[in-house]
Amino acid sequence: MQRLISNFLTALLLLVATTTAQSTDSAGTVLITGANRGIGLAMASTFSEAGYSVIGTARRPEAATALHRVAVSVVPLDVTDPESVSALAQQLGGKPIDILINNAGMVSREAAEFADVDIEKLLTEYQVNALGPLRVTQALLPNIMAGKRKTVANISSMMGSMELNTFGCCMGYRASKAALNSFTKTLAVDMSGNATIFVVLHPGYVKTDMNNGAGNITAAESAAGLYTVITGLDETDDGKFFNFDGKPMPW
Ligand SMILES: NC(=O)c1ccc[n+]([C@@H]2O[C@H](COP(=O)([O-])OP(=O)(O)OC[C@H]3O[C@@H](n4cnc5c(N)ncnc54)[C@H](OP(=O)(O)O)[C@@H]3O)[C@@H](O)[C@H]2O)c1
User: Fold this and answer.
1) What is the pLDDT of residue 3?
2) Which of 36, 93, 119, 193 is the most buried (most CB within 10 A)?
3) Proportion of the chain above pLDDT 70, given as a percent
4) Which domain, by its residues, includes 59?
């Protein structure tokens, strides 16, 4: 019952917020997962500054203070939880989503020696980084089809590239991003002819909590590049893998 009431209230807030945003002639609606910090938050700011209505998801919306300042709406979402994903779809109702950015992701600390790697733990990254975006895309497909751009941008990583795997490490993370790349390519092929655009993007090596701030670009720099790439996509880009600076990435 509590979840029902909370869903109803969120749907109501979403309706009021997006109606207000529409009346100010927004550039479109973008939904970004994992938008409460890191690259997701930076993209939420960038898209919002460019005139988009941003719907940001967070596992704990009540703690997503910075996101509340830039998003028209902050909705709860755990991408590993099918109930949470379907609650998001319910809250959106039939609202068109022009761009879905599957950004939520995680990396696990893995043993350096293969003999010590906990194989079962690799499933955690697979659930979040690979199946998570797939679940969200499936649940929001009617919203995406109702949008003008019909674009799904999946934040992958160069770590998912076979060709760029020259230094090993991080089996679960690499495999989960490679699976995400594969899912994206398959969707692009299966849905070609529907005016949809599915891409995967490497955001750069970005200073965020994920790498304890050890990147070589800021989240704002990454978001600026990703914004240019995503908003510049057309149907000829369907099924491709891009760097945040727009250069093609090898699979
Ligand atoms: N940073 C880099 O150098 C780099 C490089 C290549 C690719 N990437 C990719 O870029 C994306 C963003 O990474 P980041 O560096 O910004 O990471 P981050 O700062 O660690 O932020 C990760 C975001 O994902 C959310 N998240 C994690 N698990 C989730 C789940 N089960 N359900 C919903 N949300 C979940 C987190 O929410 P909570 O706050 O609730 O934990 C947080 O909002 C990820 O997909 C990552 O793999 C990053």
Assistant:
1) 53
2) 36
3) 90
4) 2-18+26-243
Tell me, what CATH number does 233's domain have?
A: 3.40.50.720
Q: In what order do the strands lie in the sheet with 197-202?
A: 73-76, 53-58, 29-32, 99-102, 151-155, 197-202, 241-243
CA 24 to chain centre: 25
Count up the domains in the chain and report the number.
1
pTM above 0.70, yes or no: yes
Ligand 1 pocket: which residues have CB below 6 Å?
33-34, 36-40, 59, 77-80, 103-106, 128, 155, 157, 202-203, 205-206, 208-211, 215
Say whether pLDDT at 4 is over 80. Answer: no
Contact by Cβ (8 Å): 55, 11: no
In a domain, 249, yes or no: no
Is 121 part of a structural domain of the chain?
yes
**Position 250 in a domain:** no
In the prediction, which pLDDT does 89 show? Answer: 98
Asked whether the predicted pLDDT for residue 217 surpasses 90, the reply is yes
